[in-house]
Amino acid sequence: MADKIVRAVAKDGQVRIIGGDTTELVSKATKIHECAATASAAYGRMLTCGSLMGTMLKSPKDSLTLKIDGKGPAKGIVVTAYSDGHVKGYIGNPKVDLPANNLGKLDIGGAIGKDGGLLIIRDMGLKEPYVGQVPIYTGEVGDDLAYYFTVSEQTPSAVAVGVLVDKDLSIKSAGGFIIQMMPNADELLADLITYRLQEVPPISKLLSDGKTIEEILQLIFEDMDLKILEEIHPEYKCDCSREKVEKALISIGKKDLKEIYDEGKEEELVCQFCNEKYKFTHEDIGKLLKHSI
Hints:
By secondary structure, the protein is of the alpha+beta class. It has helices at residues 23-32, 37-54, 108-112, 142-152, 187-199, 203-208, 213-220, 242-251, 254-263, 282-291; strands at 4-10, 15-21, 63-69, 77-82, 87-91, 117-123, 130-135, 157-165, 171-181, 227-232, 267-270, 277-280. The chain is built from ten helices and twelve strands. The chain has a five-stranded antiparallel beta sheet with strand order 8-9-2-1-10, with helices on both faces.
């Protein structure tokens, strides 16, 4: 089944909801980076958060970058997202695989660590991007993003993300939702939603059991006049190209580029997002040298 993100409201617009099934994009990304189980779950949660948040962007030219690094063995995770929900990203150590935590689940918090922060960068085409940062709350990703929304953006939010990794390291399910209370929303409504969220099974379990994202949101917002406003189909997609890599090489400056040329060796650059390899012969580097300033 194709991945899907839905944007919705409930209770006459008092609640804003973004929920998604991101199983396919997480599967594609974890295969590209050859992730171990714990790495897959941590990276998949970040990709899901990025994809959901990306749909909050107002312009197709805008982008959003999420970075989390708690000095744990995962060595940081970076995700860049866009308004159509497509994402790209990388994890510093895709081979991190820890013993189960005290709940018997994959130890995401242990992999990410807690000695660091969650950084959100919104590039909206202005002179300077908007940057927000909070200390890592739990390292479980969803809790950290909820903490960011509440502290940095003063928007009370509930965030749930989950990734189920099978024994063969394939992704059984991945998804999440962001629920935000709008200004002047009824406090009792927030309490009721909090109670329901505590009662429902994890989203990755519901998706694995065959529930659609719409059915999951209906379960949470039963009798709350849930209205689906938009449906988006996200994907894992890298926008690298040989032209961009050439520009990056030229940007290092004529002096450094000449040193590479004088060594007479071939250069191979690998995209950190998709592992695409770009080879440059001695002759190719000579041509780039002529275009450098």
